[in-house]
Amino acid sequence: MIRVAIIGASGYTGAESIRIILRHSEAELVYLTALPEECGAVGDVFPQFKGRCDLAIEPLDLDKLSGTADVALCCLPHKVSMGFVPKLLTAGLKVIDFSADYRLKDVKVYEEFYEVKHTDTANLARAVFGLPELLRRQIKDAELVANPGCYPTGALLAIAPLLREGLIKTDSIIVNAVTGVSGAGKNPSSKFHFPNMNENLFAYGIGSHRHMPEMEQIAGEIAGTDVQILFQPHVGPFDRGILSTVYCQPVCHSERSEESHGEKVGSEQLLRLYNDFYSAEPFVQIHKDAPAVKDVAGTNYCHIFVTCVKGRIVCFSAIDNLVKGASGQAIQNMNIIFGLDEKLGLL
Ligand SMILES: NC(=O)c1ccc[n+]([C@@H]2O[C@H](COP(=O)([O-])OP(=O)(O)OC[C@H]3O[C@@H](n4cnc5c(N)ncnc54)[C@H](OP(=O)(O)O)[C@@H]3O)[C@@H](O)[C@H]2O)c1
Fold this sequence. Notes:
Elements: E1 2-7, H1 12-22, E2 27-33, E3 40-41, H2 42-45, E4 56-58, H3 62-65, E5 71-74, H4 81-90, E6 94-97, H5 107-114, H6 121-126, E7 128-129, H7 132-140, E8 144-146, H8 150-164, E9 173-179, H9 194-197, E10 202-203, H10 211-223, E11 229-235, E12 242-248, H11 267-277, E13 284-286, H12 293-296, E14 302-309, E15 312-319, H13 323-337
Parallel strand pairs: 1-2, 1-5, 2-4, 5-6, 6-8, 7-8, 9-11, 13-14
Antiparallel strand pairs: 3-4, 9-12, 10-11, 12-15, 14-15
Helix pairs in contact: 1-13, 7-13, 8-10
C-alpha cells in the first residue's frame, strides 16, 4: 500500500483527496495535518467521513511524518506551500503540490504575478508540471510534481492537439472560462460569499489572472514556440466545475508546414484529430456536442468538443475543478509515480 499524508487536509482539496484515497485499493491515508484550530477527528471535521476514517487531523509534526508516509499531497495555498515542500522532500517523501509555487519556471514571472519572493528556487527547478496527458514520462520519475491549476488543466487539454499539430496562430488564443465557487477555497471573500454569489455571474481577474502565464508557459512547450493567451475567468453560482470555451484562429494554408499538405481544417477533421490524440487517455473524452459541468461533477474526466465556426476553431472543455482540476489529477499523478494503474481510486 502507498502511504499517503495530506498536508492542509481541512480545506476543500484536502477533503476531496481524503474522499478519493478512501476508495483507492492500493493507497491508504496515514497522516492528515492542518492548522491547530482546524484539527480533530476526521469524522468531526468532515461528518461525511464518519465511520470511514479513524484518523485525526493533527498539526504537522515532521519527525512523525518521516518514515510514516511515502507521499505528501500538499493542499496548501500558494506562497504558504513553498515553506513546507522543502521539509517534506527532506523527510524523504515524494510531494505533489497543489499550489502554484512550483508551476512557473520563470521566477520573475512568479514574483510578478504572486507579488512575493520565491524562497525555494532549487526545488522549483526540478519540479515537473503534473498534466499526465502531456508529461506522463517526466511525472513518472519526479520527486516533486507541481499539480496544474484548475483553469490551465481545462484550457490546455482543450487546445493541446491544435498546438502540437501547429494548426492555430499562437497569438490568437482566447480562453473564456466559468468556474464554480469551490475554486476559491473554503474561506470566501465578500465577492464570493453566498448573498453576492447566489443567482449571480461575473468576470474577475481581468487581464491579470495568475493562471494566464501558467497556460502560456505550458502551451509554449507544447507548440515549441511562444504562445500568447488572452484568458478571461468568470465565476458562477454553482459548487464545482469549470467550463472553458477557447477561440483560435487557424493558420492560413500558406503558413502551414509541408507535412500539413495545406488541407482546409474542418469540424470532422478536427474531431478525428482529437479522437486520435487522446485515444489512449483514460480521462479525456471527445464528445459530439458541447460539454456541461454537471456531466463531469465528482469525476476525473475532461469532456471536450471541438468545431469550426465562421473560420475560427472553437474548443470546449468541462472538468470538475476539485477532481481533474486538483485532487483527482494529483492522485492520477501519484498512481503514475508509484507505477500503479493510473485509474485506481478515480473510476
Ligand atoms: N479549490 C480548487 O478548485 C483548487 C483547484 C486547483 C488547485 N487548488 C489549489 O489547491 C490549494 C488548496 O486549495 P483549497 O481550495 O483546498 O483551499 P482551502 O479550502 O482554503 O484549504 C487550504 C488549506 O490550507 C490550510 N492553510 C491555510 N493557510 C495555512 C498556513 N499558513 N499554514 C498551514 N496551513 C494553512 C487551510 O487551513 P484552515 O482549514 O485552517 O484554513 C486549509 O487546510 C491552493 O493552493 C489552491 O490554489 C485549488
